[in-house]
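Q: Fold this one first, please.
A: Sequence and structure below.
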Amino acid sequence: MKKRILVSLFIASVLLMGFTQVVMARGNTNTASTLTVGATPVPHAELLNLIKDDLAAQGITLRVVEFTDYVQPNSALISGDIDANFFQHIPYLESNADWTSRLSSAFGVHIEPFGLYSSKYKNAADLPNDATIAIPNDPTNGGRALLLLQSNGLITLRNGAGLEATSRDITSNPKNFRFIELEAALLPRSLDDVDAAAINGNFALQAGFNPINDALIIEGADSPYVNIVVVRRGSEQDPKIIALKNALISQKVKDYINRNYSGGVVSIF
């Protein structure tokens, strides 16, 4: 009788151990997961790489995929190749009906003040008559460039031109500036061939500019173009996205931004 009891207890303990191991395995499967985020290199990928260890401590492996243009990250997100992207502002997201029907802003992180740069002139007032100015060829950033020039008295746009203003909306151009449109990523390299170029903050930083010191004119920190993390619609409250938000909207990231970008990136939190 005593022997049968001992055998029964042994079998029960083995079964219990096996059950515990299965539960633990299932728990590990649910906890350990990968979050793939597409980003342009500076500052977006840099900020994401900064928080990898913070997410790893929560069982989330953050995989950062770098893109050097403004179209592929949204295409990759729609196709499911990545889980989120971090490179754009809301006006850009809303410039494409297919994007807005499938994608959504999860949260905002920072502003990258847009600036006008030149390798030939030190002040906007020095730009000559008939100067050639390069601007981004996507509607929202092209409009952003024109609005920057207007806010500094260099051109005037028609009333109601809005965030997607084009050169056709210019009603006053005292110095007869000529505008050419280029892909945003190519603008820093165009400076030898034009008199000035309006460049997105991330590409200016990537090219080695200090926006505060090097831009002829620059947006203020109250710019409406907040850079956002974008996800597929319905994924805004996914636990991994919430964890990403908490890691990015942190004092650690704020301090890093203040320490490393000299005003070329401004946190909104």
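Q: Good. Now the second chain.
A: Here it is, same layout.
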Amino acid sequence: MRLLLDEMYSPALAVELRARGHDVVSAHDPGHGLVVGASDADVLVAAQSEERALVTENIRDFRPLEIGILADGSHHAGLVYTSYRQFPRGDPSTLGRLVRALDALLREGPDLRDRSIFLARADG
């Protein structure tokens, strides 16, 4: 499974996951082609075209886009939703918790084609 991290996540998250051998890009990565501030639809199209599951906290905007894709008979590589409650951005320990949780998900390697899941914390 390959991931695209939405812009609300620190680029350090992609760096840490790549250091663990995963194919992960961030919306912040120079040369990725996404501009920070790109529309949600453009972010999802980029994830689709690269066959990457999108990791985002923005369920309110991405869930309707996902429903529209599936209703049109198109496909996506998956959406991984996180929540501010479980992974608060202002907490210094959040990066480590996200790294552990996404690393566990990537090692498990579920087929997320046309599916969305909520990421659970992997404390420990």
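Q: Anything worth noting on the second one?
A: The longest helix spans residues 94-108.
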